[in-house]
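Weekly sync, protein design subgroup
Attendees: M.S., D.O., the rotation student, P.L. (late)

Item 1: inverse folding check
M.S. brought a backbone from last month's batch and wanted to see whether the design step gives back something sensible before we order anything. D.O. pointed out we never logged the input encoding, so this time it goes straight into the notes. C-alpha cells as presented (310 positions):
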C-alpha cells in the first residue's frame, strides 16, 4: 500500500499508549479465530487486559485449533452469544472492565445489551459511532461520524454525535479538534435540511452548547478537505483543509464516505462506539490486524482520558 502522506498515523497512537497501563476489557463472545486473535494481539501489545466472555469450551477449542495462547487470560463462561453480551455488559457495570469489545457475535446482539433500559450502559448522551481512519493521502488521523448507528439523526442527536467525536479527538491529543459539518453544498438553504442543521450546530458551538472544538459548516466534501477548493469558492475557514472530524448528515452518507475512503483510497479504518458508560470497540472479521489493534489503542486512550475527568 502506498502511504506517501499517511505512514505511521496509527503507529503514533500506539506510541502514546506505551506509557499507559493496559485497560481491563470485557470481550463479548470471541468464538472465532479473528475475534479471539484480535483481543490476544491487543493484549500482547499492552493495550488491554482481556476478559474473554463466552462458552469457555468453545473459546478454548478455537484457541487450540488456531494456535492461540490463552495462558494468563481470564475466561468467564456464558452459554451463548446473547448471554455473552449480557455478561460482558454486567462486568462493565460492576467495574471489573473499563472497555467493551465485540467478539464474533452480531453487532445488534451486543448493542441490544448496551442500550437495554434495565442493566445497559446508557448515559444522558446519544450513543454514536466513529470511524477513525488512516487515509494515505491525508495528513492526520481522520474521524468520520456517524456511519453505523444513527440512521437519520435530528439536530439534537447531532449535538451529541459531534460532542462524542470532539471528546474522543481530545483524548487522542488534539487540542481544539476541527469539525467539518458536511452537506452537498456550502451555502445554507431551506431546501437542504442538512445545511440548516450545520448552521445551527455552528451557532450552538458559539453559545457553549457544544464545547472543545472548532466547528464550520455547511461544507461540501471538497471544501472540507481542500483549502484550495475552499479558496476557489471564497470560503474563509479555520476548518477547511484541516478537519479532524467529518460530521456526516446521516448514516448513509457517513457509511458510504468511510467505505469509499477504505476501498478507493486504501484507508485503514478502526471503529468505536461512544456515548455509553465506556468506549466500545466494534471490530469486523474483515478488519486487518492493524485496524483491530488501532481500535483498541483508540479505546485505551479514551478510557484513560475518562479516568482524569471530574
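Designed sequence read out in the meeting:
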Amino acid at each position: 500500500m502506498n502511504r506517501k502522506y499517511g505512514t505511521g498515523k496509527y503507529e503514533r497512537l500506539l506510541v502514546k499508549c506505551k506509557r499507559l497501563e493496559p485497560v481491563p476489557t470485557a470481550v463479548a463472545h470471541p468464538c472465532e479465530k479473528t475475534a479471539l486473535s484480535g483481543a490476544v494481539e491487543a493484549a500482547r501489545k499492552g493495550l488491554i487486559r482481556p476478559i474473554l466472555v463466552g462458552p469457555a469450551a468453545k473459546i478454548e477449542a478455537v484457541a487450540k485449533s488456531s494456535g492461540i495462547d490463552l495462558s494468563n487470560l481470564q475466561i468467564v463462561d456464558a452459554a451463548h452469544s446473547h448471554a455473552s453480551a449480557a455478561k460482558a455488559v454486567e462486568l462493565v457495570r460492576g467495574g471489573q472492565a473499563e472497555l467493551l469489545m465485540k467478539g464474533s457475535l452480531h453487532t445488534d446482539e451486543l448493542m441490544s445489551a448496551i442500550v437495554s433500559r434495565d442493566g445497559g450502559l446508557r448515559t444522558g448522551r446519544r450513543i454514536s459511532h466513529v470511524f477513525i481512519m488512516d487515509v494515505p493521502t491525508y495528513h492526520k488521523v481522520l474521524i468520520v461520524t456517524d456511519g453505523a448507528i444513527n440512521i437519520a439523526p435530528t439536530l439534537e442527536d447531532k449535538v451529541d454525535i459531534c460532542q462524542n467525536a470532539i471528546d474522543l479527538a481530545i483524548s487522542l491529543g488534539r487540542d481544539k479538534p476541527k469539525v467539518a459539518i458536511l452537506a452537498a453544498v456550502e451555502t445554507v438553504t431551506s431546501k437542504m435540511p442538512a445545511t440548516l442543521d450545520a448552521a445551527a450546530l455552528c451557532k450552538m458551538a458559539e453559545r457553549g452548547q457544544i464545547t472543545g472544538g472548532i466547528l464550520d459548516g455547511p461544507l461540501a466534501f471538497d471544501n472540507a478537505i481542500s483549502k484550495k477548493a475552499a479558496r476557489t469558492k471564497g470560503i474563509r475557514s479555520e476548518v477547511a483543509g484541516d478537519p479532524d472530524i467529518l460530521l456526516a448528515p446521516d448514516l448513509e452518507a457517513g457509511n458510504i464516505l468511510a467505505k469509499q475512503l477504505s476501498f478507493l483510497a486504501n484507508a485503514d479504518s478502526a471503529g468505536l462506539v461512544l456515548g455509553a458508560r465506556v468506549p466500545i470497540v466494534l471490530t469486523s472479521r474483515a478488519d486487518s490486524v492493524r485496524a483491530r489493534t488501532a481500535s483498541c489503542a483508540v479505546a485505551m486512550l479514551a478510557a484513560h482520558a475518562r479516568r482524569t475527568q471530574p
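Discussion: Confidence is low (pLDDT under 50) at residues 1-6. The CA atoms of residues 30 and 104 lie 5 Å apart.
Action: P.L. to compare against the previous round before Friday.
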